[in-house]
């Protein structure tokens, strides 16, 4: 007689819990080579589990709420990781928020967006999305990035690329206002702007391929999603010494470690966006990409502003010249991508080349 497997004993349920246990055992320890590799394998499993549970929640609540859940959940934990590293890092961590947020913006607006467009176009030739929603997302990301990452380079309140207390307070409040206004627009006032569209341009309210999960299943997946995300960020932190050793061995600057960790933290959103693109739901991919960039700035800067009350040392937020050029090109190319409401493989390749340029210059400044 064949045994019936309990629905709770699936790999997507076991892996997040196991990853959390591995995190508890390995936290604060220096790992030799073999345990570091095993932790990395568990980290990959936690990423895959997070994608699965994010898709379950998204299917239950519908778009654009599903994309918002994953973007905010990842960003809240990312903020906690940044603050923790700043507390323990001293003056060397003065530019950590800037480097992390800028890496997140480049990865989401070029990496996730480019990969989604390329995968979608390879399968469906031309991908379509709502230009009104994507344009609003890009405009909000651009404004947040300029207010929080560009202006500190040019203000004269304090020496160096940093805000004065009053300027930092204004940037934090403005970030919250912009992010709150966007969430209200996305979920209430103009929700249809952020729904997937059919080839003829009509919004698609629901995915026709499967019935949505029950409320209980969605709540279980939401809890497991949070557990998996905590494990992803925590294990990325555990792996950071090994990553630092590898980065030093190949001669890259230590700031490149932030890029690697950002890639790990954003891996669940990247995989979820890729899957949505292959199902011809590019608008979901755009919601994930731009929504993650907005949450990364709009939640991180206010959190860092509050944390700076207790943190000692400068807070360097302003981008350097090379970073500002990359941001400007990303905004222009992003605008040309989203305005038509349709894209081909070429746009995907262009965005991925911009990501490659960012990563190359981060490794070879």
Automatic annotation (TrEMBL):
Main location class: membrane
Superkingdom of the source species: Bacteria
Keyword Membrane: yes
Pfam families per record: Na_Ca_ex
Ranges for domain Sodium/calcium exchanger membrane region: 37-187, 221-361
Sample GO molecular function, one term: sodium:proton antiporter activity
GO CC annotation, single: plasma membrane
Bilayer topology term: Multi-pass membrane protein
InterPro entries: Alkaline_pH_Ca-Antiporter, NaCa_Exmemb
Subcellular location: Membrane
Coiled coil: none
Key words, A-Z: Membrane, Transmembrane, Transmembrane helix
Protein name (database record): Ca2+:H+ antiporter
Bilayer-crossing regions: 7-27, 33-53, 65-89, 101-122, 134-154, 166-185, 217-236, 256-274, 286-310, 322-339, 346-363
